[in-house]
Amino acid sequence: MIRFAHIEFFYALLLVFFFVFLYWQYNSWRKKVSRKLGDDKTIERLIEHRSDTKPLIKFILLLLAFIFLVIGVVDPRIGSKLEKVKREGIDLFLVLDVSNSMLAEDIKPNRLERAKMAISSLIDKLQGDRIGIVVFAGNAYKQLPLTTDYGAAKLFLSAIDTKIVPSQGTAIGAAINMAAKSFDNNKHNRAIILITDGENHEDNAVVAAKAAAEKGIKVFTIGMGLPEGAPIPLFDKYGNPSGFKKDRQGNTVITKLNEDMLREIAAAGNGAYARADNASVGLSKIYNDINKIQKGEIETKQFADYEDRFQLYIALSIFFLVFEVLITERKSKWMEKLDFFGK
């Protein structure tokens, strides 16, 4: 496994494009000046000992030296020792609604983005718990299996949007069943957090929550939205707003939070319900409830020791710098033997 000690220095690699642009500008300027001095044959006789390819080769070597220097500063570290680590926690699946109704803006910036922000904050609070992600709309999909790699969880979370599930709808029951089946056979305490606006059009979610509870899995629900509801925005292919969703009669569709449904699901799943609004998403309350669940011992494997590898990249950077110095644009008697490239 590879880690980077100072990953923020990777941004310095953007300077490579700037250097290439400067080099291109310099060559363009040099050619314009040469044309003003005379025709090509005259200029060639004046600078007959100057190589046409060496300046480019020297520039490429300098770029390589810079790239490896940046990688060296970032300091890649290789995991050298894998060992078992025991920690206490529970297994937790986050089940997130990604149907189009989650784009409603009664909660700012919209229901889905606010839910993702809250989930990210929740992940930051977890200690020792394994977390997985299931997304759903017309169908349910396991986005992330159970893991203690919270960095990976936040990476997967950032990629979630309403386009990630091809069929629209709100199959809450299928999503609960998917999460319940995704727990492994370890005897850990398990919980599901369902985050949705509660508009269920596909199946019996209460039955699914009850079935999960019978397996010892608690089902918590968080209602995203406000009771008065909001229209569902539409966007063109460029991502620009293009109006609101309308029914067959041409009336604007208003999506409303179905709190009764979510309370029933939480009750059937031996969990609790919390409602999100513009002031709070409700995950803090649910997190406190989850913390009351007795945590079992979880055994995972992780790298305990990491060895620095910056020396290799610094050495390569120095090598390319020295190599660049040994290549001259004009031949000289004392450098001819070290000149690796001809005219």
Radius of gyration: 30 Å
Helix content: 25-40%
Number of strands: 13
Shape: elongated
Going by CATH, the architecture of the largest domain would be: 3-Layer(aba) Sandwich
CATH class of the largest domain equals Alpha Beta
**Could you describe the largest sheet, including whether it forms a barrel?**
6 strands, mixed
- Category by helix and strand content: alpha/beta
Along the chain, the helix and strand elements come as EHHHEEHEEHHEHEEEEEHEHEH
Beta-strand content: 15-25%
Average pLDDT for all residues: 83
CATH superfamily of the largest domain: von Willebrand factor, type A domain
Explained architecture:
This protein has 343 residues and is α/β, with parallel strands linked by helices. The protein has two domains: 104 residues, no CATH class; 215 residues, Rossmann fold, CATH 3.40.50. It contains ten helices and 13 strands. The strands form four sheets. A six-stranded mixed sheet has the order 5-4-3-6-7-12, sandwiched between helices. The chain has a three-stranded antiparallel sheet with strand order 1-2-13. Helix 4 packs antiparallel against helix 5. The longest helix has 23 residues. It is elongated and about 85 Å long. The two termini are 45 Å apart. About 1% of the residues have low confidence.
Features:
Rossmann fold; 13 strands; 2 domains; elongated; alpha/beta
Describe how the helices and strands are arranged.
Elements (H helix, E strand, L loop, with lengths): L1 E3 L10 H23 L2 H7 L7 H21 L1 E14 L1 E7 L13 H15 L4 E7 L3 E8 L2 H9 L13 H11 L7 E7 L8 H10 L2 E7 L6 E2 L1 E3 L5 E4 L9 E2 L3 H10 L4 E3 L7 H9 L4 E13 L1 H17 L17
Parallel strand pairs: 3-4, 3-6, 6-7, 7-12
Antiparallel strand pairs: 1-2, 2-13, 4-5, 8-11, 9-10
